[in-house]
């Protein structure tokens, strides 16, 4: 059964209006105030950035080295003493990287990058979309916790991208995902894997351009924002250009 064109058009217009309103005011004002409050709340503890002396490039290399270990079956994170890890993360967290990944159960983020407790700040949503809530979370990770790299991670056979391409009527709120992903589908045509990669690129670009907080950190070389895709068959993460 095809979606009603009028309903879909109204939904898309409402989405665009509300998103513009949020990004124009919320990220510049409300989220900045939230971050300031959270930063003050954690002022008693040393800043994560001071305790994680990685540059953005080094942080990205650490991620990719972990994925290489995963692909080769040489995981080291399981050798870490969980009691020590837990005791060091009770009162604070010091992640070196942040991820925006799909909610897909086949993409276990910490595992595929061979990282243990407290190393990654992870946000997940179907279609790895940069919604206002996700942007605010990643701003907190970078500005307060000191993450040095944000990786937007798409994956092969993404159901959210497939559903957007099909454009069929779906139950509940599932169709609310479609407007976020449609630009990638439009650009890639009916090639699923191209649309998945393009969606990751678009969401990474949105993070750089829609958030003044993240944009400033990128400009000052305190943060890197990149896109990549995960191959379900090989376990390999491939970074994308652009």
Please sum up the structure shown.
The protein is built from ten helices and five strands. The protein has helices at residues 5-41, 48-51, 56-72, 82-88, 109-112, 132-143, 159-166, 178-188, 192-210, 212-219, and strands spanning 97-101, 120-124, 149-155, 224-230, 237-239.
- State the major sheet: 5 strands, mixed
Rounded average pLDDT: 84
**How would you sum up the global shape?**
globular
Helix/strand class:
alpha/beta
Assembly type: single chain
DSSP summary: helix tally: 10
The tally of strands reads 5
CATH topology: Beta-carbonic Anhydrase, Chain A
The CATH architecture classification is 3-Layer(aba) Sandwich
Element pattern in H and E? HHHHEHEHEHHHHEE
What count of structural domains?
Answer: 1
Strand order of the largest sheet: 2-1-3-4-5
The CATH superfamily is known as: Carbonic anhydrase
Report the radius of gyration as a whole number of Å.
18 Å
| Share of residues in strands | 5-15%
Q: At the first level of CATH, what is the class?
A: Alpha Beta
Structure description:
With 242 residues, the chain is α/β, with parallel strands linked by helices. The protein has one domain (5-239): Carbonic anhydrase (Beta-carbonic Anhydrase, Chain A, 3-Layer(aba) Sandwich). It contains 10 helices and 5 strands. The longest helix is centred in the first third of the chain and has 37 residues, at 5-41. The two termini are 37 Å apart.
Q: Which SSEs are present, and which pair or pack?
A:
Elements (H helix, E strand, L loop, with lengths): L4 H37 L6 H4 L4 H17 L9 H7 L8 E5 L7 H4 L7 E5 L7 H12 L5 E7 L3 H8 L11 H11 L3 H19 L1 H8 L4 E7 L6 E3 L3
Parallel strand pairs: 1-2, 1-3, 3-4
Antiparallel strand pairs: 4-5
């Amino acid at each position: 059964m095809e979606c009603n064109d009028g309903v879909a058009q109204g939904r898309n217009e409402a989405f665009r209006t509300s998103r513009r309103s949020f990004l124009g005011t919320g990220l510049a004002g409300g989220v900045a105030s939230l971050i300031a409050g959270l930063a003050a709340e954690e002022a008693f503890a040393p800043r994560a950035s001071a305790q994680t002396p990685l540059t953005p490039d080094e942080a990205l290399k650490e991620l990719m080295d972990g994925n290489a270990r995963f692909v080769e079956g040489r995981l080291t994170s399981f050798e870490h003493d969980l009691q020590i890890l837990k005791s060091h993360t009770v009162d604070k967290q010091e992640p070196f990287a942040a991820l925006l990944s799909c909610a897909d159960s086949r993409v276990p983020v910490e595992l595929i990058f061979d990282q243990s407790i407290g190393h990654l700040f992870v946000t997940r949503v179907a279609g790895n979309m940069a919604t206002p809530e996700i942007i605010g979370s990643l701003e907190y990770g970078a500005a307060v916790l000191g993450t040095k790299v944000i990786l937007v991670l798409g994956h092969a056979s993404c159901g959210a991208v497939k559903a957007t391409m099909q454009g069929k009527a779906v139950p509940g709120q599932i169709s609310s995902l479609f407007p976020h992903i449609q630009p990638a589908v439009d650009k890639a045509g009916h090639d699923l894997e191209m649309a998945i990669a393009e969606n990751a690129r678009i969401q990474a670009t949105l993070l750089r351009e829609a958030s003044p907080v993240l944009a400033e950190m990128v400009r000052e070389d305190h943060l890197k924002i990149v896109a990549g895709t995960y191959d379900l068959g090989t376990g390999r993460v491939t970074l994308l250009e652009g």
